[in-house]
Amino acid sequence: MKARSPLRILQFSAEVAPFAKTGGLADVAGSLPKALKQLGHDVRLVMPRYGRIDVERFGLRSRLDHLSVPFGQSDQTAAILEGSVGHDVPVYLVDNPALYDRDGIYMYPDDAERFLFFCRAGLEMCRELGWQPDILHCHDWHTAMVPNWMHTTYQDDPFFAGAATVYTIHNLAYQGIFGFRALEIAGVADHGFIVHPDTDDLNHVVDFMARGILFADVINTVSERYAQEILTPEYGEGLDPLLRDRRDRLFGILNGIDTVVLDPATDPHISMNFDVSTLERRGVNKAALQREAGLPERSNVPLMGIISRLADQKGFDLIGAIIDPLMQYVDCQFVLLGRGDQKYHGMFEALANRYPERMGVFLTFSTPLAQRIYAGTDMFLMPSRFEPCGLGQLISMRYGSVPVVRETGGLADTVQDYDPRTGEGNGFSFSAYDAMALFTALVRATETYKHSDAWRRLMLRGMSADFSWAASARKYVELYYRALATEPGTPTADFSGLDCSVGPGACARANGDSPCEKQPRRAHSSIRSGTSRSLVSRCESPCLSSRRASICSSW
User: What is the fold, at CATH topology level, of the domain defined by 276-464?
Assistant: First the structure.
């Protein structure tokens, strides 16, 4: 077999750590490229330059002063600044003060225009720099128009003829829903709305997420379980019919964590560094956290922690139902860090007043405090209704805090329920989305905590696991080569070589059926513009570009 050619990969993300972060998307976008670079690939990122991103702090330099970007009915101008993640992964920041010089990142009335512009600028930037990408890797709805453009605006552009698109779904619940004006701004109004017989809502709105799913050469989610779950109505957020149509291109790849930054042996934010060989030092962090939270220092009482956005999706309705009985009947302490829905702000403020020696509440977000919670708690709680991947449980295990989670998405893929008979498992999990199921799991955890030898083995098992990006990055490389080997618009013949795929059997299991032979697929969704036109007939290409064919032949 010929050696594979290194790839040129451009990643599009609305946020990238450390430049701008509101959640796990930024962590992934800031960490995965470094792991891909270590595998020998030329990987670069593009994102907006928000007003909060300080040029001097991040050492940004000007790369392009006047980039002309086709946009709507005219051209607009952007500047391109360059920074980096790691030591040698370029990050291009699209600078347009009218769109991005604001206090926040999201929730503006012109969000469609803002995210379309940075994506279009990223593509035009490549041409200006003379850097021709093989892979356009798009993260979440903000970037979903890029695959659409590759089959419309850029379909006959020789510069991008060899590029394949990979679309990563980080959270299907956030889809980017806009009106027809978004298509006009994007320059694809002539192609109209998406038409699908089983998703009527798509016929009269512009759903960015749906367009990424429909047009990308390959699609993936951020865990294998979530890739199966979103094929069902329960988790599909109204797009499950579209996802089932494209399940032969759908994969799940578990996120990793940056084990260099997230290392209890070197973390500067915690009171005492420790590792698996010096676990006895960890107790210093528990005592320090108890003091910081205003709780009595009790080394023999389990300290539970949660770091989260305060929302129903994260299971706070379940917590609200069991927290009073937990405080009254189970000897434990609880520390929370997060912000979100005001009803939960009020709930936890009341709990802190009601149980001042049991409950420590921080209604904010702070990375240093988050690290201290990971390092100081005994248990880490994630009872999510759904969780595409989840990073909290991975970080908590890295720092020796045993996870208690609901068995869904990435939580199910990473946390194995502890079995006291065999000693197997690395945490505690429950299946039903039910308050009593959560309460039972917490009782099991607190009872196990009383057995110090068993608890120590649970801690060491989590700390010794490899949740780095290395393995996941190799799976992404496999996905990139498969995307290049897939002719645009044609069904993929065989994805069986990648063990994270969602094949016919997996789809059947996700729907509660037994595995069966693949059923005939209905015709692809079409695009409505007066009369419907088939996506497949419009997107078929007689051959791959010479660069793309060369890479594929080496694979």
Answer: Rossmann fold (3.40.50)
Tell me the C-alpha distance between 432 and 543, whole Å. Answer: 49
CATH superfamily of 8-257+471-554: Glycogen Phosphorylase B; (3.40.50.2000)
What is the dihedral sign for C-alpha 203, 204, 209, 215?
positive
Among residues 353, 361, 365, 257, which one has the least CA distance to residue 304?
A: 361
pLDDT digits (tens, 9 = 90+) for 101-125: 998 999 999 999 999 999 999 999 9
- Facing residues of 335 across strands? 305, 360
Q: Are 216 and 249 within 8 A, CB to CB?
A: yes
Contact 86, 138 (CB under 8 A): no
Question: In this structure, are residues 94 and 114 in contact, taking their beta carbons and an 8 Å threshold?
Answer: no
Task: Locate the domains of the chain by residue range.
Answer: 8-257+471-554, 276-464
Can you list the alpha helix ranges (DSSP code H) found in 52-143?
Answer: 97-100, 111-129
Name which of 53, 166, 65 is nearest 105 in CA terms: 53
Q: Are 101 and 55 in contact (CB under 8 A)?
A: no
Report pLDDT for 120: 98
Tokens 């057995």 correspond to 451
